[in-house]
Amino acid sequence: MIDSARAYHDGTAYDRHEMTGHFLDWGNQPEAFKSYAGFETVQLPNVSPRHECSVWDLADTNRHMDENTQIDAERLAGILLLSHAVTATTRHGTTDFHFRSVASAGALYPFELYVAVFDVPGVEDGLYHHDVAGRGLTLIRRGNALADLRPAIGLEEEPAPVLMFLLTAIYFRSSWKYRDRAYRYALLDTGHLAENLALALTSERIRFRICVDFEDDRVNGVLGLDTAREVCLAVVPAWGQPSSKRPGAGLSGPRTDLSRFSRVAAREVEYPVIHEAHAATSVGKALVERDLEMADRLGLHLEHELPLRRPHTLPSKMSYPEAVLKRRSMRNFVREQIFADRFSALLGMLCAEPLNRVAAEPTADASICVGFLAGNVEGLDPGLYVLNRQRETISRAARGFMMDKMTHVCLDQEWLANCAVHFLFLSNLDFLEASCGPRGYRHAMMTAGRLGQRIYVSATAMRLGCCGIGAYYDDEAASLLGLNDAGRLLYLVAAGPVRKYYR
Ligand SMILES: Cc1cc2nc3c(=O)[nH]c(=O)nc-3n(C[C@H](O)[C@H](O)[C@H](O)COP(=O)(O)O)c2cc1C
Questions:
Q1: pLDDT given at position 374
Q2: 197 with 228, same domain?
Q3: Which of 14, 19, 469 is the best mutation target for the ligand 1 pocket, counting ligand atoms within 8 Å of the beta carbon and taking the most?
Q4: Most exposed: 181, 382, 414, 428, by fewest CB within 10 Å?
């Protein structure tokens, strides 16, 4: 029985000596796209991205959010396009496979995106499912869903949002391949989607917040999910020009049973461990202020802090929308150094206050420590470093070239040895639970996913390669990095020059 995040994380660790073969049941492959057959789908206006801003503009602390942004159908279509889109298609035999703008472990895309709309010109009030393949919105419930959702997110005291995005995950899409370990990917992947949404809303200067702390049952109930299969992991209210319309009573009309739409395969295998982990991490608590930060809780011996050097000119080769829509996982890394200005730009993005602290709950920031293995970074000795995102400094924790050893730890995915840098998302799971409650694990994993997606988009904008890595031997990773008893690597993201773009 899983009763804590640590028990789940350790219970789903990969061990080199205990890896069992696992055949994928191709005949029972989960449906990649959710579809509400028989429900009305409205086509989104055909928009192309309006803002040709750079990725760096989105991290600018002087970029003001406009509380009065008028959100209409076109603007909503633009946000959805930049948040979640099909961006490439390949053919396997007689079937097409669609890749998305969001990275996802095994390209299994467990997440779904919904949006509650109230008084948005051109869109009827209601709760919609985003039909990513058809570029439409399926109306699943009529009325003002925001009125039903606000109390569940603790937003009664704040002005009424105009939109609320709801990000869910369907377990079986990932557990079909990753079995018990799939809850990790559900959280990481949903974090990737949340970051794309955050970047899109920031580009539109729309104020928003990524909420991970909410009443699970009420939110899942409004969405009509079958919670044995699909659960909401994040809710993102967004504020625009306040409505002059009377809010009304909430959702209207008879409540239809929507739970059958959470099923994605004829024979779904249940993994009780996943349900137990989700239940165990349902309880949160207000962040306890501590003197020590996560970086001080990992057992690392940090040398003195060095300030980040911000590059004079930011090296953009692509605009932000182009980078989101062109992003791909790259594995053809070359053993070439990443230039200092590009590396500083990546670190600067990870520190971006508007995206870290303004856009998220305080627990998000406190839940993880960002580190990196420098293998081939101009002006930086190889070693393990920790990034302090508030003070914008780095501190060395260990000296020496560790890329080969980390590659061995990452199931010997050999191309990883050529990467210039491995970004590391770390947490002490006992301290996390003590300071943020069990729900801190959801924050930590989704924040890791968010930052991972940010690295992907920023690296792409500079024509660097990037690839997320969820497959590693957990104990070996902790021991290679010198982490203490409860210190864990949650996620790794590799980045650096790749053959495609090199020279
Ligand atoms: C959480 C996560 C874990 C991943 N783990 C690995 C990995 O261990 N090895 C790998 O080669 N790719 C990994 N990837 C990359 C995915 O395979 C890739 O995102 C997916 O195939 C979709 O392709 P795209 O990113 O080019 O759109 C991971 C991605 C994510 C988001």
A1: 98
A2: yes
A3: 469
A4: 414
pLDDT in tens, 79-96: 999 999 999 999 988 888
State the Cα–Cα distance between residues 297 and 275, nearest whole angstrom: 29
Task: For strands 95-100 and 421-428, give the pairing.
Answer: unpaired
Torsion of CA 252, 282, 101, 117, to 10 degrees: 20
Q: In which region does residue 25 sit, left (phi positive, over 0), alpha (psi from -120 to 50) or beta (all else)?
A: beta
Are residues 82 and 211 located together in one domain of the fold?
yes
Q: How many domains in the chain?
A: 2
pLDDT tens-digit profile of 95-114?
889 999 999 999 999 999 99
- Distance of alpha carbon 151 from alpha carbon 210, whole angstroms: 16
**How sure is the predictor about 502, in pLDDT bands with cuts at 50, 70 and 90?**
low
Is the alpha carbon torsion for 188, 189, 190, 195 positive or negative?
A: positive
User: 175: pLDDT confidence band, cut at 50, 70 and 90?
Assistant: very high
H or E element that contains 403:
helix 403-409
Class of residue 413 by CB neighbours under 10 A (exposed 0-12, middle 13-18, buried 19+): middle
* Claim to verify: residue 273 and residue 298 sit in the same structural domain: no
Cα–Cα distance, 398 to 395 (Å, whole number): 9
Cα of 237 vs centre of ligand 1, distance in Å, is: 28
Cα–ligand 1 centroid distance for 384 (angstroms): 23
Last residue of a domain, one of 225, 253, 280: 280
CATH of residue 351's domain is: 3.40.109.10
Same domain, yes or no, for 419 and 452?
A: yes
In angstroms, the CA 501 to CA 503 distance is 6
Q: Which residues line ligand 1 (CB under 6 A)?
A: 99, 103-107, 185, 188-189, 192, 328-329, 331, 413, 467-471
Ligand 1 pocket test, pick from 99, 328, 329, 407 with the greatest ligand atom count within 8 Å of Cβ, gives 329
Maximum separation of any 2 CA atoms in the chain, in Å? 64
Domain holding 111, by residue range, is 69-280
Using one digit for the tens of pLDDT, what is the confidence trace for 402-451? 999 999 999 999 999 999 999 999 999 999 999 999 999 999 999 999 99
pLDDT at 177 over 90: yes
Ligand 1 centroid–CA 166 distance in Å is: 23
What single-letter DSSP state applies at residue 45? P
Beta strands in 77-195 (DSSP E): 86-92, 95-100, 111-117, 126-131, 136-142, 163-170
